[in-house]
Design a protein that fits this description.
Layout lengths: L8 H21 L16 H13 L5 H9 L8 H10 L3 E4 L1 E4 L3 H13 L5 H4 L20 E4 L10 E4 L18 H12 L18 H14 L5 H10 L1
Parallel strand pairs: 2-4
Antiparallel strand pairs: 1-3
Helix pairs in contact: 3-4
Length: 243
């Protein structure tokens, strides 16, 4: 029978130590599993995490780099933008395109609801008789089509996460508060057409540019023209006619 290899003093000490530790762990936890390790410590404190979230909620249009810069002003060791993005995602604050909305007063909202209830039972045949008209602006440079904000999933339609639409030098050609749309000449012309039943004027709630479906057409037309990169007003008009 072969002679057994003797354990060294170091090996015996290790066995005794492990046995003692294992026994202690089992007695404390009633398990032989390893204790949960803390892992790598976070680079930001709880207060700094709260600062990131509160800063984003105070101004929904702040980008992650801007929030990072504000945070690093009070830190000796700067954190990265990816760290800030991670804290925002942990709070379910994701970058999204802001929902466009008109700037509405309580009266505007009441009139819009009244109009919607009045037309709720209109048939498709009746809607097909409606002639939609509108005005829009087109620019050679820049675009105001999309604005990014950071919000939680359920915050899509809260005011701070939306873009107000303010009508100024352009507006709906249907009856509204625009002076050129309520001029005496225009009213006289439409009243004459209404008398001979050529045109039937439909009441239209003010501050409701999002109602007409033609708004979707303007958006698509703007994208197509922008993709062709016009460099002059003449070329812009040419592309608008072609599209």
């Amino acid at each position: 029978m072969a002679k057994r290899r003797q354990l060294t003093v170091e090996q015996r000490s290790a066995i005794c130590t492990l046995r003692v530790e294992g026994y202690t762990r089992h007695r404390e936890t009633n398990s032989n599993q390893d204790r949960k390790r803390s892992g790598r410590p976070k680079s930001t404190t709880i207060a700094e995490d709260n600062f990131i979230i509160v800063t984003s909620k105070r101004n929904r249009r702040l980008t992650a780099p801007a929030i990072t810069a504000a945070l690093n002003e009070s830190r000796q060791t700067p954190v990265s933008t990816s760290t800030v993005k991670g804290r925002l995602l942990s709070a379910e604050l994701r970058g999204c395109v802001a929902v466009k909305k008109p700037k509405l007063t309580a009266r505007h909202k009441q009139n819009r609801l009244k109009w919607a209830k009045h037309h709720i039972n209109w048939s498709i045949k009746k809607w097909n008789k409606v002639f939609w008209t509108d005005e829009s602006k087109f620019e050679i440079y820049g675009s105001n089509r999309r604005v990014f904000v950071r919000r939680q999933k359920q915050e899509r339609t809260i005011e701070v996460c939306m873009v107000p639409m303010v009508w100024g030098c352009f507006g709906n050609k249907r009856p509204d508060n625009d002076p050129k749309h309520s001029s005496k000449l225009r009213k006289t012309y439409l009243l004459e057409k209404k008398r001979d039943r050529t045109i039937e004027i439909t009441d239209w709630p003010s501050q409701s540019p999002d109602f007409p479906p033609i708004e979707l057409v303007w958006d698509e037309l703007d994208r197509r023209v922008k993709s062709r990169s016009p460099t002059s007003a003449k070329q812009l008009w040419q592309y608008l006619e072609e599209e």
